[in-house]
Amino acid sequence: MSIKTDPNLKKELREFGVTNVDNCYHCGNCTATCPLSTSDNSFPRKMMKYVQMGLKDKIKASPEPWLCYYCGDCSVKCPRGAEPGENMMAIRRYLTSLYDWTGFSKKFYTSEKFEYLAIGTVGLIVGLILILFHGTPDMEHAKLNSVWPAHIVEIGDVLMGGVLAFLLLSNTWRCISFILGDLKSKIPMGIYISQAKELIIHFLTQKKFAECEDRMPWFVHLMIMTGYATVFLLVVGFLAGGIHFIGLYDERLMFQRDIIYPLYHPIRLLGYYSTFALFYGVTYAMIGRLKKSKPSYKFSHSTDWMFLILLQLTTLTGILIHVTRLVDLPMPTYALYVIHMMVCIPMLVLEVPFAKWAHLAYRPVAIYLTKVKAAYVAQAGSSETAE
Ligand code: SF4
Ligand code: SF4
């Protein structure tokens, strides 16, 4: 089988953040250091070689970039400053753009101008819709539903959720197709099902990350992920419970409620957990990036900053809305709600299918596929032996 090389690959990858790759002389220190590298899925040296040689198809079919959680140990041990950890990160950005069939992700990652324009445009559209279309505000009490009725807002939520789910799932399907290739249809369904628990475990716990020497980045990652997942599940849970779509309107079943639950109500406690987890995780990551306190914070792509800024603004405006609702200040609540939506919606619309949040899907899927492949190879080997 002939192997195609792409002489422009290195140049293309530089736009995604690949750096110092030519410094690598393949001593293998990085792979020996990496706590997550295995004999079946060895990295990062192999990926450095693929980039140097322009092996685009090999990179496209590699699950290895997703098996790396960017602890940065390999970059510290590299004698040539070839930054294997950062290069794995840059390859993940590149893969995200390859999985995305719309081409949007590539533009988002490779042009800062496009990134700012996309975020600004979505934010402005959301702000204009909220300012132009609203009901009669209750000026006595802070009641969001008097201005933007929940049953209308939630129809918008459902539509947006449907579009985002379609984009993310179709991109994830391409990720699966690239990684498994022809094997996709050959692997028996029973193997896919028997390994499904891996997908759930790795999605919920990121437990591989905890195998790295410095466990703090894992903890920060887990805080951000669980904080976000809690909000997401609350929104989805309430949308699913939103039986108003079949004609029954009940405010208790909606995410956007004017009811304030008692302090120890489980929903309020979950809300506090997600706010704390996001605020803590994002603040830690921002300070780390400013101080370059860890190897994984040494390099920052513009999209890394944009992701953290949008997430932090969403969290802060969410906290402020909660406070103004508690002290019952109508106008500040309504103004903050508009700002909150202007940062939260672009983050969801652009980051979930096209950028950083998509990693939440691709990483556990890639880990799952390596387990599926290993189980298939083991099964095929044992049937050959039996024959
Ligand atoms: S990236 Fe550094 S440590 Fe890894 S093989 Fe290359 S030179 Fe060696
Ligand atoms: S950054 Fe950490 S997990 Fe990633 S390749 Fe390097 S040592 Fe392995």
List the helices and strands and how they pair.
Blueprint (H helix, E strand, L loop, with lengths): L8 H6 L14 H5 L11 H9 L2 H5 L3 H4 L5 H5 L6 H16 L4 H7 L1 H21 L11 H4 L2 H31 L2 H4 L2 H6 L1 H10 L10 H25 L25 H26 L10 H25 L3 H25 L4 H28 L1
This protein binds iron/sulfur cluster (SF4) (2 copies).
The site of one iron/sulfur cluster has 13 residues, from helix 2 and helix 3.
Task: Please describe what this structure looks like.
This protein is 68% helix and 0% strand. It is mostly helical. The chain folds into two domains: 9-99, no CATH class; 104-379, no CATH class. Helix 14 (196-205) packs antiparallel against helix 19. The protein is globular and about 70 Å long. It starts with 8 loop residues before the first helix and ends with a helix. The model has no long low-confidence stretch (mean pLDDT 88). Bound molecules: iron/sulfur cluster (2 copies). The site of one iron/sulfur cluster has 13 residues, from helix 2 and helix 3.
What's this model, at a glance?
By secondary structure, the chain is mainly alpha-helical.
Query: Helix and strand succession?
Result: HHHHHHHHHHHHHHHHHHH
Mean pLDDT: 88
Bound molecules: iron/sulfur cluster
Rg, rounded, reads 23 Å
Structural class: mainly alpha
- Largest sheet data: none
**Unreliable runs:** none
User: What count of structural domains?
Assistant: 2
Overall form: globular
Instruction: Give the proportion of residues in helices.
Output: 55-70%
Quantity of strands, as a count: 0
Assess the beta-strand content as a share of residues. Answer: under 5%
DSSP helix count?
Answer: 19
Please give the alpha-carbon distance between the first and last residues: 28 Å
